[in-house]
Write a structure and sequence with these properties.
alpha+beta; Jelly Rolls; 19% helix
Amino acid sequence: MTANRFLASAAVATALLAASLPAHADMPRAELSAGMYRIDAEVANTFDARATGLMRRSFMVGHAGMIFVYPEENTHCMWMRNTLIPLSVAFLDAEGVIINIEEMAPQTETNHCARRPARFALEMNAGWFADKGIAAGQRIRGVQALPPAR
């Protein structure tokens, strides 16, 4: 491998790593699970963290996601402005039961909403829930241990 090709490969690896890191280094993390699948979730429990979400990221590892913790149950909606990766979002009630799952295309402003009042929203890479056979009515474990919304 030539020096230029090595440097180019190193630059790509560094960019991928940086893109997969949390947008906020101080953002809390939580371990959740869906069936037998472990989820390493960033916790968006503040207004600013919920407003930013996964914007401007170009990559997310397969078992990673972001859980949005809302201060109240409501028919919360999500959109994908400035979000570069396709995502699936599961809206959850206060017990972690999936209300509905929506597929979201990158860089769109289409609203994707909970079908009834939700307390949480869990974003994963597009198709993650379907690939794992996870559907509405199933429970995401670990939500009771999440930090409260601020």
